[in-house]
Design goal:
The complex is a heterotrimer of chains A (about 675), B (about 200) and C (about 290).
Chain A (H helix, E strand, L loop, with lengths): L9 E6 L11 H9 L4 E7 L5 H14 L3 E6 L2 H14 L7 E5 L1 H5 L5 H19 L8 E4 L4 E4 L3 H12 L4 E4 L14 E2 L4 E2 H14 L3 E4 L2 E9 L2 E8 L15 H4 L7 E2 L8 E2 L2 E2 L11 E2 L7 E3 L5 E3 L6 H6 L12 E7 L1 E4 L3 E3 L16 E3 H7 L21 E8 L14 H16 L2 E6 L9 H10 L3 E4 L4 E3 L11 E7 L4 E7 L1 E6 L1 E3 L3 H7 L27 E3 L9 H21 L1 E4 L4 E3 L19 E4 L4 E4 L9 H5 L5 E3 L4 H13 L2
Parallel strand pairs in A: 1-2, 1-3, 3-4, 6-7, 6-20, 7-10, 20-31, 22-29, 23-24, 23-29, 24-25
Antiparallel strand pairs in A: 5-32, 8-9, 11-12, 12-19, 13-14, 15-16, 17-18, 21-30, 26-27, 27-28, 33-36, 34-35
Helix pairs in contact in A: 1-5, 2-3, 5-16, 6-7, 6-14, 11-12
Chain B lengths: L17 H6 L15 H5 L10 H9 L3 H5 L3 H4 L5 H5 L6 H15 L7 H16 L4 H12 L1 H16 L13 H19 L1
Chain C lengths: L1 E4 L3 H4 L3 H13 L3 E4 L8 H5 L3 H17 L5 E2 L3 H16 L1 H12 L11 E2 L1 H9 L1 H7 L8 E5 L19 H8 L3 E2 L13 H4 L1 H17 L4 E4 L2 H9 L1 H7 L7 E3 H8 L19 H6 L1
Parallel strand pairs in C: 1-2, 1-3, 3-4, 5-6, 5-7, 7-8
The chains are: A alpha/beta (about 675), B mainly alpha (about 200), C alpha/beta (about 290).
The structure holds flavin-adenine dinucleotide (FAD) and iron/sulfur cluster (2 copies).
The site of one iron/sulfur cluster (SF4) has 14 residues of chain B, from α2 and α3.
Chain lengths: ~675, ~200, ~290
């Protein structure tokens, strides 16, 4: 390592961040203290370092005071390290002569004692000043971006993002785990607040996706592995067998009525189990792709295999195959296929699942047949649903004359999900409207708060009030089936405090609808790990910054959109999907990314050739030069994780930005304070 | 004849600090989190007889309406069934708060006169102090004599029935180490005083 | 299997049939129950209403005695006792100040609580320690045809119980089934019976008992099985008053332990069955029908 020849001249700046930092840290005192440290030429405090004048200040000082190192103590480097690095560069220095100290998230925001917080800021600043003296000039490296994008999940978020990108002429691979794309929205009849028909606005978009020359739809598939880094990812996709040759099937659906099951017999997932399907089926008429699927769990041509899985039994007459004829699309021998794709960026749009109503036993779902979930009602009022839009109860004939809709089921509850699911107030009102329209029933909404913060939403609430729907403010205590009065006989009785009228009431109804909340998908944690993202405490994927980087994640090149990031309605979902597409296109258009030069390298002279680092590298970036008997690191693959650095027995691996001198001097700095 | 009463509340009607004090007691902290959803009243089997519903008691307590809360029937109607506490979405231990309010009402002597429930609580406590065990027959007899001697007659039939089935006895049960009990109670009293000082 | 036994005041008074049936049944299953020496009242709900600190200290005296006598576990059949003893332990574990107060008070009479002694309900012990298989093996007179409404009441499942579901408890259902009885679907299993209000404010308390009884009959139960002396009293003791106020809803209410005794073939006369106001029909009459 080259000795520092030049005299070290450090400029130190401490930022008030308005009162974010200044309220808990005495900034002038920090500046004054740092000014006394060796090597520090000037030390200033300033209200907003990230502002234009703040950045200008750094540049000017570099020139006027011949600074050759810069330290800023302010917020998280995640937010403004690029800002200050660039100011340093504009001042005429290599940007890596800059170092940043986080005294906001790590200090002022998390402490309550001003004196202590100020001491901590000083200690952290001293560490940075010690460290920056050892910084070396480095160059970033450019990596080109593969212009193909992977979109995971084909709900409205994934569909919209894929279309936007594809329309700009870039390729998209759209992976959806169900046999059809469309997500939750495909199940709705109408959408709030405009009540436009979901099918009319969604299904054209779905078929556009299906036929777009730039979009490759991989339905009934899941991503199982992701390798690489921004611009250059390799993803592994598992194609589940649907026992249909996707190329050969023309979507005529002749096979379905030909099935040996003359009547549909099995609970139909798309209809929330309210309808029935055959083992060979298509989820709904406008499904995309228009390709049937065979469910091996119900198809007679399969039996239980030795490992518990399903294997072909060849016991069935296979009337479906006959019907398919010389298209020959049915293939019982199909097995799971594994495919690899190269992409540059990824949009994760895996959506949500609804709360399992059985977890709220007081409301009797699963115990009383006429207690429904909201998704079931979506299918029941749907013109293409199991009853053709005729609202009848589970007996298959009677129409409800009164309906209670219970809001916030599973939401805003410390025992289950603490968050507000954001869409349930609105969809409950939508369902109230539709149920009233279809049946003329008396409808009661039971709510804690009516939340309508969207364009046209309050007006929708008003419309419902005008329609004479009851709104009772009170979280329902329980739904029971025992009667106190003759008019309660045979009904479901809702017991609730009408908190505004000030009475406890018992309200008998024919049907109860549970507005189940939105929660992360069952497998959200696996998906998070696979794409190296973070989650909030509730389990939704975490955005890089809630205001300034809402569709970015902490992993470059991976974006999120839709309800997988948190509960949201369709307008917000689509806006987010558009934003994610724009981020992707910006990346593709730029063509390259600058990579942090924090890679490791091996000091060839000191390497003993023990090879202990090679298996440890998670990115297989370490290779062995048999000729020299030394290991070496492929810089293009190194992600700068530092695993090998710590493990090398001879201490011969060095990592840029984190070499021993830098780290030890930083530790000394922090320990030297007090 | 219709009589009118003011229902508006002035700041002077509040006892500032009351709510905070209650929320400082073990078990009552989470009252702070109440969102006034009414689940507690919705499940409470006795809410139908209460002058304030459990939810209202939570709001009144938090807002320092001490007189209204301590003078309410609600706290005495609470049967300690814990239905509310189990269902509350904010995990507020409503039952424990009811206990705390009962204690304060007894302490301040503000419960409704001749109201049998607080009298029972006190007679019960006294019997435990003096004897270490409760003899139900005796307790009930005392209760009726103190609150409503006439009602005692209505209960006579039940008493006879109990006697017949060998379940009624006015014999006082006693534990052996009564002095030990007295000492325990005395120590708690001393500690409570120390705490107040 | 050995347990310390905390009967509580009711099991020696109005609820003595509970003790009279529970002891022989447990003995029949080979379970040893040793009554705590000189136990004192748990304090029940009334004491908590007067002074929480004292209530805990008095309850803790029993825990200290249990520890002194070397019991690994304590069985508390009365729901109120079960709750109060558990609550005391919870408070001592959760709140340092409460623990210090209780320690001090007990210390003044040379008693100490140094470890938590698990307080168990007989249902918990029967299901989880003894096991239904062992129970089944003792059944000589299956309760075939007897339709039972299992009544758990409030305080054993709420708020501290860990052995059963708070909203839809199942332990007694399973136990009764293993005796050969038919369990009726009765959504009121954990509703409040009125507690001490039946005595103090009959209008409010009796209504709750009335609802429970009415609904049990409507759903075809022959008998209600309970786990708590106060519940048994409320459901059994006020039929006249209920009939006067609403309608007659006579149905016997017995302890689950009495039904166990019958199924085990223990002499009916020694299970305290004669102490109920609404007598239960002899088993033979039911099973024959
Ligand atoms: C009952 C109900 C009614 C509603 N009504 C309305 C309304 O009227 N108006 C409105 O604006 N909003 C409404 N909403 C909200 C609306 O559903 C959401 O805003 C919208 O569905 C979010 O779209 P999404 O694409 O993010 O998620 P989703 O619709 O959940 O789509 C996610 C897709 O990703 C797929 N997927 C998940 N995981 C994987 C994986 N690992 N690999 C591959 N694919 C995967 C899923 O199969 C699914 O197709 C309603 C919600 C509910 C519950
Ligand atoms: S249930 Fe809980 S949150 Fe709701 S009003 Fe009652 S105490 Fe408050
Ligand atoms: S504990 Fe008291 S307030 Fe709560 S539900 Fe039971 S009786 Fe009502």
């Amino acid at each position: 390592m080259a000795k520092q020849e030049q005299e070290v001249r450090i400029g130190f700046y401490v930022c008030h961040c308005g009162t974010n930092i200044a309220a808990m840290v005495d900034c002038p005192e920090v500046a004054q203290f740092v000014g006394t440290l060796p090597g520090v030429v000037l030390s200033k405090d300033y209200k907003y370092m990230c502002s234009d004048p703040g950045q200008e200040l750094i540049q000017q000082d570099i020139r006027e005071h011949r600074l050759n190192r810069v330290v800023v103590a302010s917020c998280s480097p995640l937010l403004h390290e690029p800002t200050f690095r660039s100011a340093t560069e504009k001042g005429g220095l290599n940007q890596f002569y800059f170092h940043m100290v986080n005294i906001r998230e790590h200090d002022s925001w998390v402490h309550t004692d001003r004196a202590e917080a100020t001491s901590k800021a000083k200690a952290l600043a001293q560490a940075a000043v010690h460290r920056v003296a050892h910084h070396k000039p480095l160059e970033t490296k450019r990596v080109s971006i593969n212009p193909t994008t992977l979109v995971v999940g084909a709900g409205i978020a994934g569909i919209h993002a894929a279309m936007t990108i594809a329309n700009s002429g870039k390729k998209v691979i759209l992976v959806e785990r169900e046999p059809t794309i469309g997500g939750h929205m495909a199940k709705f009849d109408k959408t709030f607040p405009t009540l436009d028909c979901a099918a009319c606005i969604l299904t054209p978009k779905m078929s556009d996706v299906g036929s777009h020359e730039n979009i490759q739809v991989l339905s009934y598939s899941e991503v199982t592995k992701v390798d690489g880094f921004v611009g250059n990812y390799t993803v592994t996709v598992k194609r589940k067998p649907r026992y249909i040759d996707e190329e050969a099937c023309i979507g005529c659906q002749d096979c379905i009525p030909a099935c040996v099951f003359k009547q549909p017999k099995f609970a139909d997932e798309f209809n929330e189990g309210l309808g029935k399907r055959r083992p060979v089926y298509i989820p709904f008429p406008q499904a995309t792709p228009q390709i049937v699927a065979i469910d091996p769990n119900t198809c007679l041509n399969f039996k239980k295999g030795e490992d518990g899985g399903r294997v072909v039994s060849d016991k069935c007459k296979k009337t479906c195959v006959e019907a398919c004829g010389d298209k020959n699309a049915i293939d019982f021998t199909q097995v799971e296929r594994i495919e690899e794709y190269e992409v540059g960026s990824v949009i994760v749009a895996t959506g949500f699942q609804t709360f399992d109503a059985r977890r709220a036993p007081a409301y009797g779902y699963g115990r009383f047949p006429n207690v429904y979930t909201s998704l079931e009602i979506e299918r029941l009022v749907n013109a293409s649903g199991p009853t053709g839009g005729h609202v009848v109860m589970r007996d298959g004939k009677s129409e409800p004359r009164s309906v209670g809709i219970i809001h916030c089921v599973g939401s805003r509850d410390k025992k289950t999900n603490v968050w507000c699911s954001r869409v349930c107030c609105m969809y409950s009102m939508k369902l109230a409207h539709l149920l009233k329209e279809h049946t003329g029933a008396e409808i009661y909404n039971f709510y804690i708060d009516v939340r309508t913060p969207g364009k046209g939403y309050e007006e929708f609430y008003n419309k419902l009030l005008d329609e004479g729907v009851h709104f009772i403010r009170g979280r329902v205590g329980e739904v029971t089936d025992w009667a106190m009065t003759p008019d309660e006989e045979g009904k479901l009785v809702i017991r609730v405090e009408d908190t505004l009228a000030g009475y406890v009431r018992r309200i008998p109804v024919d049907m109860v609808v549970l507005a189940t909340g939105l929660e992360p998908q069952q497998d959200a944690q696996d998906v998070r790990r696979m794409f190296n993202m973070s989650c909030g405490s509730e389990g939704f994927f975490l955005e890089r910054h809630p205001k300034l980087a809402p569709v970015n994640t902490f992993n470059d090149g991976i974006y999120i959109a839709g309800a997988c990031q948190g509960p949201k309605d369709i307008p917000d979902t689509v806006a987010q999907a558009g934003a994610a597409a724009a981020e992707v296109l910006a990346l593709i258009d730029k063509g390259f990314v600058e990579q942090e030069p924090n890679t490791a390298f091996i000091l060839e002279d000191e390497c003993s050739g023990c090879k202990s680092c090679i298996p440890l590298c998670p990115y297989t970036a370490i290779l062995f030069d048999e000729g020299k008997g030394r290991a070496y690191i492929n810089e293009a693959l190194c992600k700068g994780c530092g695993t090998c650095v710590g493990s090398c027995p001879s201490g011969s691996i060095v990592q840029n930005l984190f070499d021993d001198e830098e780290i030890f001097s930083e530790i000394e700095g922090v320990l030297a304070y007090e | 004849m219709f009589e009118i009463q003011r229902t508006i509340k002035y700041e002077a009607d509040r006892v500032p600090g009351f709510g905070r004090e209650v929320m400082g007691v073990p078990g009552c902290e989470k009252l702070k989190d109440c969102i006034q959803c009414g689940t507690c009243s919705g499940v409470c089997p006795l809410s139908i007889y209460m002058d304030y519903t459990p939810r209202q008691v939570m709001a009144l307590t938090r807002e320092d309406f001490k007189r209204e809360v301590l003078g309410s029937h609600t706290i005495w109607l609470c049967a300690s069934c814990y239905a509310c506490a189990v269902e509350c979405p904010r995990e507020i231990r409503i039952t424990d708060i009811m206990y705390e309010l009962k204690q304060r009402a007894i302490h301040e002597g503000v419960y409704p006169r001749r109201f049998p429930i607080p009298v029972l609580a006190q007679e019960f406590t006294k019997m435990v102090h003096d004897h270490g065990r409760v003899s139900e027959g005796l307790l009930v007899t005392k209760l009726f004599l103190k609150t409503n001697p006439l009602a005692a007659l209505g209960m006579a039939k039940l008493g006879m029935g109990l006697m017949k089935t060998g379940r009624f006895s006015v014999k006082q049960e006693n534990i052996k180490r009564r002095a030990e009990l007295a000492k325990i109670v005395e120590t708690v009293d001393q500690e409570n005083l120390k705490g107040k000082a | 299997m050995k347990y310390g036994y905390f009967p509580g005041c009711s099991l020696k008074g109005t609820g003595r049939a509970y003790e009279e049936s529970l002891l022989p049944v447990m003995q029949h299953l080979g379970i040893e129950m040793r009554e705590l020496d000189d136990w004192s009242c748990c304090g029940a709900t009334a004491y908590m209403a007067v002074d929480e600190g004292k209530a805990c200290a008095l309850a803790a005296r029993n825990l200290a005695i249990a520890e002194q006598e070397g019991h690994a576990q304590l069985m508390a059949p009365c729901s109120a006792c079960y709750l109060v003893l558990n609550k005391t332990q919870h408070y001592m574990a959760e709140y340092g100040a409460m623990k210090r107060l209780v320690d001090k008070a007990l210390g003044s009479v040379n008693l100490r609580v140094t470890r938590p002694t698990p307080v168990r309900h007989p249902l918990d012990v029967l299901l989880n320690d003894v096991g239904l298989e062992a129970v089944k093996q003792k059944v000589t007179h299956p309760l075939k045809g007897l339709k039972v409404a299992p009544y758990y009441g409030c305080q054993i499942v709420r708020p501290y119980s860990t052995f059963d579901d708070q909203a839809d408890p199942q332990t007694m259902d399973r136990l009764l089934e293993s005796l050969g009885a038919t369990v009726v679907d009765w959504p009121l299993k954990t509703k409040c019976c009125g507690g001490s209000l039946t005595g103090t404010l009959p209008k409010a308390g009796l209504r709750l008992a009335y609802i429970l009884l009415k609904e049990a009959r409507k759903r075809g139960a022959d008998v209600i099985a309970t786990v708590c002396p106060l519940c048994q009293f409320n459901l059994d003791g006020y039929h006249d008053k209920i009939a006067a106020r609403w309608e007659p809803v006579r149905i016997p209410t017995v302890y689950f332990s009495q039904l166990m005794g019958l199924a085990f073939g223990l002499p009916a006369g020694r299970l305290g069955l004669q102490r109920g106001f609404v007598p239960m029909k002899p088993l033979a009459a039911v099973t024959a029908a």
